[in-house]
Design goal:
single chain; alpha/beta; 14 helices; 8 strands; globular
């Protein structure tokens, strides 16, 4: 499903004082699951696996976080993971979602950790795709380091689709189509998105500031946990797995290491085994 079709199938709602895009798929009375996307893209990252979840009987809720995709991207805004978590909570309230499974990727992993910290009993199960659960193991690529630095506010305006594609290819382990890469670029840059990348990347600092509480939220969560991981990811790949296995020995693991090994975007690079594993886990 292309980005324009994905957006056409959703709605906009006012949350936290901002216009937020969201959509729901699957039976109205299905098992609730919420998918939270990563940086710098959008909820469209879940398009390759959302239909399988819906067909399995899940009521799938997705949203574009503030500053991402088709949602509002206020310039000069002080973007915070904690605010994103509040937006998710408000969406749940508006959609009458009480308990839900929670699936997260990259930036969304930090949002999920904050949600677990606030109200773990609300989360029936938690699945994590490549993300910075432990800030000391997070290895941002060069462009992220530059955008996060003092010159980031200037550099973000100089970004081109060619540069964007090259950067994303650094974190992929498997080929991703030109059409998918173009949709990722469109999701990032629509609504003047280039102007907010520097501020969105402040999540790196917020992860460090809240490291203890977010680590504890995951490690003490009593519900079922699954990690779906692309080991070829240079940012949060194979080097994170030993700690995850040590700290969460009861968790389920799907390591996508069959050649060519999967990178940072398991749901985009290798959707079939990802969807199959997630459907089984959520049942």
């Amino acid at each position: 499903m292309r980005l324009d079709e994905w957006i056409a199938g959703g709605e906009h709602i006012r949350l936290g004082g901002h216009d937020i895009f969201h959509r729901q798929d699957g039976p109205v009375d299905g098992r609730p699951v919420t998918l939270v996307h990563g940086f710098p893209t959008s909820s469209h990252d879940w398009a390759p696996i959302a239909p399988a979840l819906a067909e399995s009987g899940c009521r799938v809720t997705t949203l574009d976080l503030l500053g991402f995709g088709a949602s509002a991207k206020p310039v000069g805004h002080d973007y915070r993971i904690t605010e994103q978590a509040s937006i998710v909570e408000e969406l749940w309230q508006r959609l009458d979602i009480d308990e839900t499974a929670l699936v997260s990727h990259d930036y969304g992993v930090s949002v999920a950790q904050e949600l677990l910290h606030r109200n773990a009993p609300r989360i029936t199960s938690a699945a994590f795709f490549n993300g910075g659960l432990y800030p000391d193991l997070h290895r941002p690529i060069r462009i992220q380091q530059l955008l996060h630095g003092p010159a980031g506010s200037l550099l973000q305006h100089l970004s081109t689709e060619r540069m964007y594609r090259r950067s994303l290819k650094e974190v992929f382990g498997r080929p991703v189509s030109d059409a998918d890469l173009h949709d990722m670029w469109l999701a990032t840059t629509m609504n003047h998105g280039k102007r907010v990348q520097h501020r969105l990347l402040r999540y790196i600092d917020e992860r460090r500031a809240h490291a203890d509480r977010w680590r504890t939220a995951v490690e003490t969560y009593p519900g079922p946990v699954q990690f779906i991981w692309g080991p070829a990811d240079p940012v949060s790949g194979a080097h994170v797995l030993p700690r995850l296995r040590d700290r969460l020995p009861k968790a389920h693991f799907l390591i996508l290491d069959q050649a060519p090994p999967t990178g940072h975007y398991p749901q985009v690079e290798n959707p079939t085994p990802v969807a199959e594993a997630l459907v089984t886990f959520l049942r």
